[in-house]
Amino acid sequence: MTNLQELLLKPVWQMTGEEFIFLSKHASGQTETQPRPVTDTERKYVYGILGIAKLFGCSLPTANRIKKSGKIDKAITQIGRKIIVDAELALELAGKKTGGRK
Questions:
Q1: Please, which residues have CB within 8 angstroms of residue 33's CB and are 6 or more apart in sequence?
Q2: Which of 18, 35, 53, 102 is 20 to 30 A away from residue 6, measured at CA?
């Protein structure tokens, strides 16, 4: 990259896009950082009965039955009327067999 002083004296209309971005980052005090890779460790959440229905691919009444059954209670956080569901944990809990017919 060229000298910072040269860039400051150069008219904006003569700058390349790279020079302009470098100058704007330097002026705002930011340093050039590499974008961090997206990690798959971030939790994914769905919200409400509609979110549960979309997650399991079922109807709203069935989603309500799934919630009321208690199978996915560990994945649900409910504050008042707001329902927040950890999607991966809910799918894992729903896949586990507990009891059943004899």
A1: none
A2: 35
User: Would you tell me how many other CB atoms lie within 10 Å of the CB of residue 84?
Assistant: 14
| Percent of the chain whose pLDDT exceeds 90 | 44
pLDDT digits (tens, 9 = 90+) for 74-96: 999 999 999 999 999 999 998 87
Compute the distance between CA of residue 49 and CA of residue 67 in angstroms, rounded to an integer.
8
9: in domain: yes
| Structural contact between residues 86 and 78, judged by C-beta atoms closer than 8 angstroms | no
Total number of domains constituting the chain: 2
φ, ψ of residue 92 to 5 degrees: the values are: -65, -45
Given a cut of 70, whether residue 21 has pLDDT beyond it is yes
Rg (CA), the chain: 26
- Judge whether 39 lies within some domain: no
The pLDDT of residue 35: 63
